[in-house]
Design goal:
About 25% of the residues lie in helices and about 20% in strands. It is α+β, with helices and mostly antiparallel strands. Strand 6 and strand 7 form a beta hairpin. It starts with about 25 loop residues before the first helix and ends in a 5-residue tail after the last helix.
């Protein structure tokens, strides 16, 4: 069996390669641009991402600004202990050198309020004076001011002499033949003081007392001042019911006389 003859040769004409379509080139360029941008983004993320230590550290706590403590909230500190001695007390006043005039200090308004139509009568010397305010109408209301001085020229502690004289006056008041209702020491006047309130004896047996008297005696260093206020006793009831008023009237006069003693 013989070989079949070879097919006749096919002759093709030559044609040059065609250029790629214009529509494919922009697509390729766009794809390349996307790849480049993605790479840059990945690299930028890598550059700016914090490392592991920075990611693990918590953010610092935020604290509100603090205000200065108010003065009331500031704890008070105790004052420092004094390092020096306390100031010395003022020196004691010296003895009174002289008495004021007998009626000095008593205002006319006070005298006329206590004794209507009051007239004054004065007497005395350098160590003892008296001033009496009485009514010209025979009223029982009377104010009497007595001042006594223990002069420093007599030697010794003249204030002690005056203190002893006041103590003696208290003893006499407690043993007075008059009907003494009250004898009471006071600490609100001068250096020493006391007051007494008494009811005079009736003029006839079985009668009522005619007069009540309040006396207040005050010592100021080496001087004694006694103010007496008397008025008619009540016609009925307790004759001592006006004791507080009578004592207050005597103190009113004293408060005007005492400032003159220097």
């Amino acid at each position: 069996m013989g070989l079949s003859p070879a097919p006749p040769e096919f002759e093709r004409g030559y044609s040059s390669p065609q250029p790629p379509r214009a529509s494919r080139r922009p697509r390729l360029l766009a794809l390349v641009a996307v790849v480049v941008v993605a790479g840059l983004a990945a690299g930028g993320a890598f550059l700016f991402l914090p490392d592991d230590d920075e990611r693990a550290a918590p953010p610092p706590p935020t604290t509100a600004p603090t205000r200065p403590p108010s003065p009331s909230a500031t704890p008070s500190t105790p004052p420092p202990a004094p390092t020096s001695r306390p100031p010395a007390p003022p020196p004691a006043q010296g003895p009174i050198a002289a008495l004021t005039p007998p009626c000095a200090g008593v205002t006319e308004a006070t005298a006329r309020r206590l004794v209507p139509g009051a007239r004054s009568q004065a007497a005395g010397n350098t160590s003892l004076t008296t001033c009496t305010f009485s009514s010209p109408h025979g009223d029982a209301k009377v104010v009497r001011v007595e001042k006594r001085l223990f002069p420093s020229g007599e030697g010794g502690d003249v204030s002690a002499f005056a203190r002893e004289m006041l103590a003696s006056a208290i003893r006499q008041a407690q043993t007075s033949p008059d009907q003494v209702i009250t004898v009471q020491r006071r600490d609100d006047l001068g250096d020493d003081a006391f007051h007494r309130f008494k009811v005079d004896k009736p003029l006839r047996p079985g009668g009522r007392p005619e007069t009540v008297v309040a006396e207040v005696t005050v010592r100021v260093r080496n001087a004694l001042v006694t103010v007496g206020y008397s008025e008619a006793a009540p016609k009925t009831g307790d004759p001592a019911r006006n004791e507080k008023t009578c004592v207050a009237n005597a103190i009113l006069v004293l408060e005007e006389v005492l400032p003159g003693l220097r």
